[in-house]
Amino acid sequence: MARTKSFKALVRRHVKHDKKFAEALLREGVDATLSGDVDTGKTILRDYIKAMAGSSYVAGQEELAAIDEALEQAKRGQFATDAEVEAAFARFRK
Questions:
Q1: Is 48 within 8 Å of 15 (Cβ atoms)?
Q2: pTM above threshold 0.85
Q3: How far apart are the first and last CA of the chain?
Q4: Residues 41-64: pLDDT tens digits?
């Protein structure tokens, strides 16, 4: 189904003004991609990125905690192995 300019504008407005909608759209794009529907995932994520362009993003408490934990792991030298990285990227090559 072709998306019209008015639909794209509606998505952009909702993403910019409704944080829950933006988070749901992002989650939907990631979920579609990870479940193997890469084309749909890319389309949704592209719409999300275009809508967020020029916007400032404020991370939530869970995201900040995850970033802090990742930084602590890096300080301890805990990084993913080459095999773990390859497995993660392999999901996107399907």
A1: yes
A2: no
A3: 23
A4: 899 988 888 888 866 667 789 988
